[in-house]
Specification:
The protein is α+β, with helices and mostly antiparallel strands and 441 residues long. The chain is built from 14 helices and 13 strands. It is globular.
Length: 441
């Protein structure tokens, strides 16, 4: 049975619409059993098609002509995420704050200028989320100083529910990579240990550090601190430096290469197409209504106005660093697809993407990826990182040497409560999530 991505996407759209309908029925206090049953059937069918599609892709071996081979820097993300200094001055002082004062804010900005900070870890990105989601009594900012000078900081939420104490890294569901911010000339393992030890000293029943990437020093640090890791997802990238268009396409399966060439020719034959790139925040604001229409047309639902305003505040905050970059595709002068992301250390990190379902017959997602990658090569970018998410469309472009893992890292105290939480998080909860996925996502 031959399966196309279009078949899967259409079912996903039906499921999204069905999920919204179930929520509406439940909000009225009515019985949604029949609708939930239909969603379960859809989810089973989607999983079946995804498995068939993935098998189909994997069974087709990519070409391995010499012209497709270029030198991949296997240490690319160590250089990006694991910048490490050698300063080991022992006059450290660690403290915590439950409010980010103007003075501390100024200090953090100064620290960021002297540190290797991924855009989604910057204060300007994090603050809008904190203001919306964290009470002052819950905010726990770990501050490390050397002779009074700020050299390290990390953001957490500290909470107490039913007598159980929790500490968790923040923000949650608002970024794909988490890390401590430590000044570049200091040894991260030493300062990172100070931060984690300060958390352990609070004797919380559970500590969670989420979205830890396997290429980061934080990954090594949590291992040495005896955290238990649960894999969230893979992170795929495609190497672009010194690559040619022919070579990049040649790394795909013959089937996918032929599909992209054929569908691009068809799209260009029947429509006028234009791929545009911008780092202008005012242009982004102008186009947000059109981007939102694309999301609704494809998924049937969209985020709230409040969520978009919070996102805009974060984007405005980091815009000064010049990293926010977005692409949008026009077909017959209508915007039909977009990609949002960040250019950091000459690598493009793709954060959000979507395209209109009415163009599914052209496999517009794949075509958009191809057009964006060509833009990158023209502009001299080193690589394209698809960020968190195990999706087939990411896997097919991936350079194996650059693939990494994002993990959720747990530490439990030795109390009875800690042991119960460990059993729940590591054993029971994953089973419940798998069971729930058969009913509704």
């Amino acid at each position: 049975m031959k399966v196309s991505m279009n078949d899967i996407e259409e079912l996903r759209k039906k499921r999204n619409i069905g999920s919204k309908k179930v929520a509406e029925i439940k909000s009225k206090g009515e019985d949604a059993s029949e609708e939930i049953l239909e969603l379960k059937k859809l989810s089973i069918e989607i999983k079946k098609l995804e498995k068939l599609f993935k098998s189909d892709v994997e069974n087709i071996k990519p070409t391995t002509e010499k012209s497709n081979i270029c030198s991949v820097d296997k240490m690319l993300y160590e250089k990006i995420f694991s910048v490490n200094g050698s300063e080991k001055n022992k006059k450290y002082d660690v403290s915590s704050e439950n409010i980010i004062t103007k003075l501390l804010e100024t200090e953090i900005r100064g620290l960021e200028k002297e540190s290797n900070v991924f855009p989604q870890c910057r204060l300007d990105w994090v603050m809008p989320w904190i203001k919306k989601n964290i009470k002052s009594t819950e905010l726990h900012v770990v501050v490390v100083r050397d002779n009074g000078e700020l050299i390290g900081i990390a953001y957490f939420k500290k909470s107490l529910k039913f007598g159980i104490s929790f500490i968790k890294s923040i923000p949650t569901h608002y970024g794909d990579f988490y890390d401590f911010i430590i000044r570049d000339d200091y040894e991260k393992i030493i300062v990172g240990n100070i931060i984690i030890n300060s958390l352990k000293a609070l004797k919380a029943n559970q500590i969670i550090i989420d979205q830890v990437n396997s290429f980061s020093l934080l990954n090594d640090l949590t291992e040495k601190q005896n955290f238990i890791k649960m894999i969230n997802c893979s992170v795929y990238s495609v190497w672009l430096k010194d690559q040619t268009e022919e070579g990049l396409l040649g790394n795909l399966s013959k089937k996918m290469k032929a599909s992209i060439n054929l569908k691009l020719r068809k799209l260009e034959s029947f429509h006028k197409i234009e791929i545009l790139e911008s780092s202008c925040i005012d242009k982004y604001i102008e186009l947000v209504p059109e981007f939102r229409n694309i999301v609704v047309s494809r998924r049937g639902v969209d985020l709230s106005d409040e969520a978009y305003n919070r996102r805009l505040e974060s984007l405005k905050g980091i815009h000064g660093s010049g990293c926010f970059t977005f692409f949008y595709l026009k077909v017959d002068n209508e915007i039909v697809a977009f990609r949002f992301g960040y250019t950091f250390k000459n690598v493009y990190f793709e954060w959000k993407s979507c395209h209109k379902s009415e163009f599914n017959k052209y496999s517009l997602g794949d075509l958009m990826t191809w057009m964006v990658l060509k833009k990158h090569m023209k502009n001299g970018r080193t690589a394209h990182n698809f960020m968190a998410g195990d999706y087939v469309y990411k896997q097919r472009w991936a350079t194996k040497e650059l693939t990494s893992i994002n993990s959720k890292c747990f530490f439990f105290d030795k109390s009875v409560t800690g042991l119960i939480l460990k059993q729940y998080q590591i054993i029971l909860r994953p089973k419940l999530k798998r069971l729930k996925s058969y009913v509704i996502r």
